[in-house]
Amino acid sequence: MLKTLSLAAGALMASTAIAAAADCGTITLGAAISLTGKYATNGVHTQNGYEFAIKKIAENGGVKVDGKCYNFKVTYYDDESKGDRAATLAERLINQDKVQYMLGPYSSGMTKAIAPVTEKYKIPMIEAEGASRSLFNKGYKYLFAVLSTSEQYLASAVTLAGEKAVEAGGKASDVKVAIAVENDPFSLDIRAGVMEDAKRAGMTIVIDEKLPRDLSDMTSILTKVKLIKPDLLVVSGHSKGAATAVRQIGEQKISTPMIAMTHCEAADVTGNFGAAANDILCSTQWAETLTYEDPIFGSAANYEKEFKANYSAYTNKKVPYQTAQASAAIYVYKDAFERAGSMDKEKIRDAISATDMKTFYGGIKFSETGNNIAKPMVLRQIQDGEYKVVAPSAFASDKVNYPRTN
């Protein structure tokens, strides 16, 4: 009887929350996003993250502004993974659709195309997928990013390679590094960060190559890797580049002791390539094992659990960090509207700038240039098909497998 009453009470609370959400007004956000083209995989992850956060916020009472309730909705356009189209669509959202608050697109390149437009019209934009540090040296006042900047993505891999060299009785400066990246702002920043970290440690860059434009074949680069035998191979080419790398590393039986790359989860390298992905190190902005939490989404682990319950396509794979950080961007907007107590875009911009919050995704606090300075990157290794946090040591849940066994 007690269980029946509890279930009935829970159902009543849920229906009441849905009814209350229906009574709320609407705050419209705009987003030009890659739903087709080479960035489509992560564009969809990003859109799903936005929509999940909007649903969760509505279920938790919506956005309270000056005593009134609102829910978010997003007007989307497909930028087709093309920068010029992204800029044109941003103009359309602002001038034709009269959007006053923007969400970011997917990728640094698309964000670079849109940022001058939102800046020109003084439209606040919270973005979750443009990590290039070059976005934050332009003096933009209306651009804010919840994610860590790109030069931090694989810094832990360089450090880890140096540590392993020392453990083997050598020096960090003994490490030979191979780099293969896409020719886009994000990946070029990855390259610059790795180059800087390797130089500080006295390491030698033995391969420095650009991936082909379509990201479909890195055979010639891997042939050099087999010949030169670096100690660390770094790859960055978004989801398609990660998929190509893992597939061809397996096919060519590359035995490099340490391989680190971006976008492993988004490319579902474990689901698509199985054992070939084992022992690869994957940079991530977020992991469900981290001890982050907030009142809306709960813990990082709870976010993953509830997201999978809403999106069955993710049931048998990791929720990618691109999705989590997209949800975090929506959450920052909720917080900013409520603190501003206004719909005025300048007051919203100022409230975003003053953000200092703890979330399921990690801390969020913006520097004067608009990047998040409150959250570190972590490095996960695929071990028997599971992603395990192995670096930095303060966040590690497991020991790194070294050298790779594949």
Written description of the protein model:
The chain is an alpha/beta fold. It folds into two domains: 2-148 and 289-365, Response regulator (Rossmann fold, 3-Layer(aba) Sandwich); 152-284 and 378-395, Rossmann fold. 41% of the residues lie in helices and 20% in strands. It has twelve helices and 17 strands. The protein has helices at 2-22, 40-59, 83-95, 108-120, 155-167, 185-200, 219-228, 238-251, 269-273, 300-310, 321-340, 345-353, and strands spanning 25-33, 63-65, 68-78, 102-103, 125-127, 143-145, 176-181, 204-210, 232-236, 258-261, 281-284, 293-294, 298-299, 356-359, 362-365, 378-383, 386-391. The strands form five sheets. A seven-stranded mixed beta sheet has the order 8-7-9-10-11-16-17, sandwiched between helices. Helix 8 links the parallel strand 9 and strand 10. Helix 2 packs across helix 11, helix 3 (83-95) packs parallel to helix 4 (108-120) and helix 11 (321-340) crosses helix 12. The radius of gyration is 22 Å and the shape is globular.
Outline the secondary-structure elements.
Elements: H1 2-22, E1 25-33, H2 40-59, E2 63-65, E3 68-78, H3 83-95, E4 102-103, H4 108-120, E5 125-127, E6 143-145, H5 155-167, E7 176-181, H6 185-200, E8 204-210, H7 219-228, E9 232-236, H8 238-251, E10 258-261, H9 269-273, E11 281-284, E12 293-294, E13 298-299, H10 300-310, H11 321-340, H12 345-353, E14 356-359, E15 362-365, E16 378-383, E17 386-391
Parallel strand pairs: 1-3, 4-5, 5-6, 7-8, 7-9, 9-10, 10-11
Antiparallel strand pairs: 2-3, 11-16, 12-13, 14-15, 16-17
Helix pairs in contact: 2-11, 3-4, 11-12
